[in-house]
Amino acid sequence: MARVYNFSAGPATLPEEVLKKAANEMLDYRNSGMSVMEMSHRSKEFEDIIGEAEFLLRELMKIPENYHVLFLQGGASSQFAMVPLNLFRKSKKCDLVHTGNWTKKALSEAKRYGTVNILASSEDKNFSYIPELDKQSFTSDADYFYICSNNTIYGTRYSEIPDTGDVPLVSDMSSCILSEIMDVSRFGIIFAGAQKNIGPAGLTIAIVRDDLVGQAMEITPTMFNYKTHVDNKSMFNTPPTYSVYLAKLVFEYVRDLGGVEEMEKVNKEKAVALYNFLDNSGMFSSTVEEKHRSLMNVPFVTGSDETDSRFINEAAQQGLVTLKGHRSVGGMRASIYNAMPAEGVKKLIEFMKKFELENS
Ligand SMILES: *Cc1c(COP(=O)(O)O)cnc(C)c1O
């Protein structure tokens, strides 16, 4: 069986080494006589797995001591509610930068519990850029300031993190966590669904600064209170054990390759190669302003729906799959997360060149 190059935006490709290791340990995890899936989450084996996963993530992201690392469920989408429920603790106001579908969903959840000030938006140009921010316009007594660091659907990325002073900055990093070096101390909360750059769906990571824990709104359900999970070390209820185990294997893989610094270097090389090709092509073009282009999700179009769909079909026949763009942008999207080898991007560019030559 030949594995394909899978450009899916999520759930996304995982490192082959990790899948092989998991396959090897599937029936009998380290002489326990059972798979990790079948194990009590209170067992010594699993406690070691989750402990090691936290240790590795802390090491990879250089997470300071005063931050908690939580292994949760409910997807990034649950964080859209969990963030306001836990952070609307004084003025019940937040600032939000609107950059696409995911901030729209975050916005509509937050609005249920307090006042959301849309500080800036890139909706006027179909979210093809990150808006400029004027510090003077920030709400000084906001309980938090919300951004999505990498917009999976539109392929935009913040090249600079806003300076929000004393107001805690919250970022949805579902599609860019571990892809480039991030200074965690600039944020109050970072969260990410695992299925883009970490592991299987079902696991959600939240990195929460200690002083933001313990002041949740009265109505907050127990499971939506960060304090519940801090106090119980992510074991208040059964965590998504197998997903945590696979995340641990991915963290080991990233560490062994040289850590986030090395990921960033390779990711930049992959992205630069693809954008360079797009910028020089007579057929394909990027949909995103140069300064704000994502390293992870690369939408592109030919300008003709017919050509787009022919390209997607022919690419799939070459083992380059899931290149269809999101319906709100159209065309194609290549998601080139950490686990997409440079070789996969090279193959994609070669195929695009060939397709262009044959069709113009
Ligand atoms: C995929 C994605 C989500 C949604 O994640 P779920 O785990 O499906 O809830 C939210 N935000 C961003 C940036 C994403 O890429």
Question: Could you list some keywords that capture this structure?
Answer:
seven-stranded mixed sheet; single chain; binds pyridoxal-5'-phosphate; 360 residues; alpha/beta; three-stranded antiparallel sheet; 16% strand
Topology:
Elements: E1 5-6, H1 16-24, H2 44-61, E2 67-72, H3 75-87, E3 93-98, H4 101-110, E4 115-121, E5 144-148, E6 150-151, E7 156-157, E8 169-172, E9 189-193, E10 204-209, H5 226-231, H6 241-257, H7 259-280, E11 285-286, E12 297-301, H8 305-317, E13 320-321, E14 332-335, H9 342-358
Parallel strand pairs: 1-13, 3-4, 3-5, 5-8, 8-9
Antiparallel strand pairs: 2-10, 6-7, 9-10, 11-12, 12-14
Helix pairs in contact: 1-6, 2-6, 3-4, 6-7, 7-9
The structure holds pyridoxal-5'-phosphate.
Pyridoxal-5'-phosphate is lined by residues 10, 75-77, 102, 148, 152, 172, 174-175, 193, 196.
What's the order of the H and E elements?
EHHEHEHEEEEEEEHHHEEHEEH
Strand order of the largest sheet: 2-10-9-8-5-3-4
How much of the polypeptide forms β-strand, as a percent range?
A: 15-25%
Overall mean confidence score, pLDDT? 97
Q: What bound compounds does this protein have? A: pyridoxal-5'-phosphate
* Number of DSSP E strands: 14
Percent range of helical residues: 25-40%
Computed over alpha carbons, the radius of gyration is 21 Å
Largest sheet: 7 strands, mixed
Q: What is the number of helical segments per DSSP (H or I, 4+ residues)?
A: 9
Could you say which structural class the secondary elements and strand pairing correspond to?
A: alpha/beta
Low-confidence parts:
none
What is the 3D shape?
A: globular
Q: Roughly how many Å apart are the termini? A: 34 Å
